[in-house]
Amino acid sequence: MRHLEINDLTAGYGGTPILRGVSLGVDKGEVVSLIGPSGSGKSTLLRVLIGLTPPSAGAVHVGGEAVDYGKRASVAALRRRMSIVFQQFNLFQNMTVLGNITIAPIKTRGLAAAAAEARARALLDNVGLADKADQYPDQLSGGQQQRVAIARALAMDPEILLLDEVTSALDPERVGEVLDTIRTLAGGGITLILVSHEMHFVREISTRVVMMDAGAVVETGPPSQIFGEPEAARTRAFIGSIVGGL
Amino acid sequence: MIERIVAEAPAFFSSANLGFVLAALGRTLFMTFVGCGLGFGIGLGLAVLRRTQAPMLAPARWLAMLWVETFRRIPFLVILIMVLFGVQPLVPEISLIGIATIAVTLVATAFLSEIIRAGLESVPRAQVEGAAAMNFSAWQSFWLVVLPQSWRVILPPAAAFMVMFIKDTSLASHLGVVELTFSGKILVNRGSSPVLGYGIVLLGYFILSWPLGRLARMLEVRLAPSRNQ
């Protein structure tokens, strides 16, 4: 049984199809990277998976359990196993760093405040921001905010973590610190599904790379295949167009 | 004229007159604060209702919109008279100040609900999505994330509205409510100099509105997150 099973998933905004039947299986502990041109549906796939954009058809199974995106209880159960980190961080501006990390475990999982705080401080230490616990998000740099956002997602103890272009909104010199944080997660048992334009990073960290175009999966394979000997013409063209960056 | 004012001053500032004006000031204060307070509460409810998306609440949303759009467009004096003739037959023992306070509530609800709605909408959608992805209920998302971030946008215009409304309550004198303006008129009719009679009214409005403006500014700074603290 695969950890995450996506079958023929379709979704769209107001009649415009974005995902046209995506199927993908992900095993526990895998690091799967979604690549492809803008508008190919990578971010939409993550949004559908976490229940922010409703699918129009298809099935998603997490740990063998079917997710019913129309039912609040089913989505809530899903979100206890899956978290997401956004491109724009989406940290709560009215809360301190510590508040951002502790609020969901306390309010949605019933964790005691002291336990949530201890866990938050340990996670902040892991991402190298132990001294920023009492600051507000707008007092931090983009890279620091994104590391807080990662800590916040991890505080929910997800089995699957979705990372949606988490370095795209950062200054180039801040990208490294966030990628370092993600590197420490890979191979630690958590399943990572990430959308990224950092091709060096994707090649280095992924167990599998998924090439998407026009709302569908074009090709799936290990990084050596996708970046070395892609089978599909579309993948070859895409990799060729960005090869200057590799 | 100055001689007349100086000559009249000791009699004018008698404890009876001051008590009379103070009681009137209290009525102005009561109409404004109770009316705007209730208006804020109900307005918040209407603003939240208008943000809902459930199809079954559509008629309620429509009624809320009708309320807001109606009471924002009718002059306050007309609403006062409407409430007088609408409520008095139903509740004959209601006081005039009660009627005026209901009228203030109706108008304040309409205006404050729009101010609150604009404040709630100023919070980026990404904040709500972040909350949803972390399994917050709609209520938790509203209470813990959206509302705290919208105070900064809601408070300045809400306070400005209230300060403005302190002055508009003078129209309640048309109903016979002895509020601040009416008390000045009565003093002048009793023979006081208009300079003293309306001068004390002027001072009364200033005393009411100036601290309120300061308080709003203080709250605005205090409620703003992080850097402004």
TrEMBL record, chain A:
It is a peripheral membrane protein. Keywords: Amino-acid transport, ATP-binding, Cell membrane, Membrane, Nucleotide-binding, Transport. Its main location: membrane. It comes from the Bacteria. It is found in: Cell membrane. The keyword Lipid biosynthesis does not apply. GO terms for cellular component: plasma membrane. Gene3D superfamilies: P-loop containing nucleotide triphosphate hydrolases (3.40.50.300). InterPro entries: AAA+_ATPase, ABC_ATPase_HisP-typ, ABC_transporter-like_ATP-bd, ABC_transporter-like_CS, MetN_ABC_transporter-like, P-loop_NTPase. One of its GO terms (molecular function) is ATP hydrolysis activity. Residues 4-239 form the ABC transporter domain. Coiled coil: none annotated. It holds the Pfam family ABC_tran. Belongs to the ABC transporter superfamily. This is Polar amino acid transport system ATP-binding protein. It comes from Polymorphobacter multimanifer.
Automatic annotation (TrEMBL), chain B:
It is found in: Cell inner membrane; Cell membrane. One of its GO terms (cellular component) is ATP-binding cassette (ABC) transporter complex. Residues 25-213 form the ABC transmembrane type-1 domain. Keywords: Cell membrane, Membrane, Transmembrane, Transmembrane helix, Transport. This is Polar amino acid transport system permease protein. Gene3D superfamilies: MetI-like (1.10.3720.10). Belongs to the binding-protein-dependent transport system permease family. HisMQ subfamily. It is a multi-pass membrane protein. InterPro entries: AA_ABC_transptr_permease_3TM, ArtM/GltK/GlnP/TcyL/YhdX-like, MetI-like, MetI-like_sf. One of its GO terms (biological process) is amino acid transport. The chain crosses the membrane at residues 20-49, 70-91, 97-120, 141-166, 195-213. The keyword Transport applies. GO terms for molecular function: transmembrane transporter activity.
